[in-house]
Task: structure prediction
Amino acid sequence: MKSFYFTFILIFSGIMAFGQNNSTSDSLNIRKIYDMSLLNGKSYEWLDHLSNEIGGRLSGSFSAQQAVEYTKVELEKLGLDKVWLQPVMVPKWTRGEREFAYVQTAPGVTRNVNITALGGSIATPAGGTKAKVIEVQGLEQLKEYGREQIEGKIVFYNRPMRADHIQTFEAYGGCVDQRYSGAEEAAKYGAVGVIVRSMNLRMDDFPHTGAMSYGDTPKDKRIPAAAISTNDAQYLSGILKVQKDLELYFKMSCELHEDVESYNVIGEITGSEQPKEIMVVGGHLDSWDLGDGAHDDGAGVVQSMEVLRLFKEIGYKPKKTLRVVLFMNEENGLRGGNKYAEVAKSKNENHVFALESDAGGFTPRGFSFMATDAQFDKVLAWKNLFKPYLVHYFEQGGSGADIGPLEGGNTVLAGLRPDSQRYFDYHHAANDTFDKVNKRELELGAATMASLVYLVDKYGFNNISKETTEILD
Result:
């Protein structure tokens, strides 16, 4: 019996020593990743070109095609095993001339307000739309007013993002329905247009665009939809309290065209041991057209590209196949993400992990995961390796829109979670520009992504091996 216990202790000590040695090795490799990104990074240079040489990359536009061509060439320069374009049909919507709007408080007395068309909106009539305004706090209030009070008016949705949410994406989710479905619902009551308070926690003069939908609304019943800056939303709401019969005028010339062909850009390092097990890192290549899409989602694009470059630079050959996927058309259709998942399913590909960066290029705080409890427990075992980099946030729930269609089976999905407090200051607005991205924060995010991918590649999401379990039993 003593001999048995002595043998058990030796075996268990060996397992513990193996784990400690692995931990030391992992710490050193992760340090190499961070050093390479911070001292010899490429992500900021790539973002500079995407933002300042190409600019806003609206799905279906010439600049979006330029971004496809540029990133494909840059991936080819990395010496990957394979780089290719995956065709996908995407919607094409153009903004037209700059939008114009004013509030008329008396005959000949007007004040201009800052608006921007929502993505997918129809244009106003050539001479613009002018009508009285009715303010509501959300879709549910339309029923309270009914057709009698809404018909012939412009509906002004003015529910703000809640500033008491620490997780700003929760604040965004709490009011984005009025932007997406506001025109569809207001049209049912005879409204002639909608103006939506920008999804922004800050008070400023930048209107924030974003996707909207008419649902099943017949084309001849559709009404124009625009976002108004938070400062002007406050002004409009305040003056409506004392002058309910004021009129608002706005003019837009946007247009929805036939779908056009675009591409997902994909690069691959083939796995050295399990090539049929696929890991994905990605962000979306398209952006809105008001700024240059530096945070949303140029940052995610270049961080994802950088993951593969960092592996090449430090000489790490992944066991599993590692792909970078630069998705097209996340902003107004999700066609790229759906197409990638559709092709993967048709080829019966085995995706074991997917990581997306689409929350801005700010300081990384950690990750959110869509995983089983057992898989998430494995992730938590790696948490201490990230503490030296002040990365502490590891939570269940949420990943990314473009990798969402890969959900199912044993695939673990994850999203990089940077500090989000400033994200909605820039999201979908003209001030989402390269100068708003901090080089060091961007590079830290790329290294954090690469470190997680390294750990997933090395250990996977299986529990203790059968052999080890039998020894311990």
